[in-house]
Amino acid sequence: MPVHEIRHPLVRHKLGLMRRADLSTKNFREMAQEVAALLTYEASKDLPLEPTKIDGWAGELEVEKIAGKKITVVPILRAGIGMLDGVLSLIPGAKVSAIGIARNEETLQAHTYLERLVGQLDQRLALIVDPMLATGGSMVATIDMLKKAGCRHIRALVLVAAPEGIGAVESAHPDVDIYTASIDSHLNEDGYIIPGLGDAGDRIFGTRQKDG
Ligand SMILES: O=P(O)(O)OC[C@H]1O[C@H](OP(=O)(O)OP(=O)(O)O)[C@H](O)[C@@H]1O
Ligand SMILES: O=c1cc[nH]c(=O)[nH]1
Ligand SMILES: [Mg+2]
């Protein structure tokens, strides 16, 4: 399973800004969408094309279009919503499959509370989006669901990945490629990525405890 760490200068710069503890919710949100768009650009580089005939201004000609059924974007709620518009800015026709998973703060086990997948998954590429790949429990559970529904082509886009999470996805689903803006150092004793971004869901939704 290849892991693609996208070291493009724009990605490095934006991620550097996102790591600032004093970044406003507004700016954090905007940058999450921008980095998501850049990851989407990289993750779509090798999509297969097929020829199609069109009427051009000077007559009929053959152009190319992306082959196959429409892609499905799979945000893992909540925090994955923070990357969704960034992906859709480049793939506006994509279908959205929503998965709701919350990690138990004590046990770190992933608990699924929503599964709304689009149809014909056996014929679609699925792009899972979630800002954080920590223990990997949420990502592995999402891939399990997609595969159970027949999906065979799956890629994961995450802003920050811990080596522990990469290892978990790699051993459970070696066929799934991961695209990330950074492979960080490790998880702390509470299961948070170091240096990471903190709690991505709270930063995107403005629900930090200290904000009341
Ligand atoms: O790799 P894991 O150890 O499973 O952790 C990563 C998950 O934790 C966060 O979500 P959280 O459970 O906090 O839910 P939220 O998006 O609703 O805040 C994050 O957005 C991932 O989904
Ligand atoms: O560092 C982490 C780990 C899990 N979830 C987050 O939001 N951040
Ligand atoms: Mg959270």
From TrEMBL:
Q: Where does 5-phospho-alpha-D-ribose 1-diphosphate bind?
A: 78, 103, 130-138, 199
Work out whether the entry's keyword set contains GTP-binding. yes
Mind telling me which NCBIfam families this protein's record contains?
A: PRK00129.1 (NF001097), upp (TIGR01091)
Describe cofactor binding as the record notes it.
Binds 1 Mg(2+) ion per subunit. The magnesium is bound as Mg-PRPP.
Binding site residues for uracil: 193, 198-200
Q: Give the highest taxon in the source lineage.
A: Bacteria
Q: Where does it sit, as one GO cellular component term?
A: cytoplasm
Query: What residues does the Phosphoribosyltransferase domain cover?
Result: 7-207
Catalytic activities? UMP + diphosphate = 5-phospho-alpha-D-ribose 1-diphosphate + uracil
Briefly, what is this protein's role? Catalyzes the conversion of uracil and 5-phospho-alpha-D-ribose 1-diphosphate (PRPP) to UMP and diphosphate.
Q: Where are the transmembrane segments?
A: none
Q: Does the keyword Glycosyltransferase apply?
A: yes
Q: Quote the record's activity regulation.
A: Allosterically activated by GTP.
The family annotation for this protein states:
Belongs to the UPRTase family.
Q: What is this protein called?
A: Uracil phosphoribosyltransferase
Task: Give the UniProt record's GO annotations in the biological process aspect.
Answer: UMP salvage; uracil salvage
Stated EC number for the protein is 2.4.2.9
Give the molecular function GO annotations.
Answer: GTP binding; magnesium ion binding; uracil phosphoribosyltransferase activity
Query: Which pathway, per its entry?
Result: Pyrimidine metabolism; UMP biosynthesis via salvage pathway; UMP from uracil: step 1/1
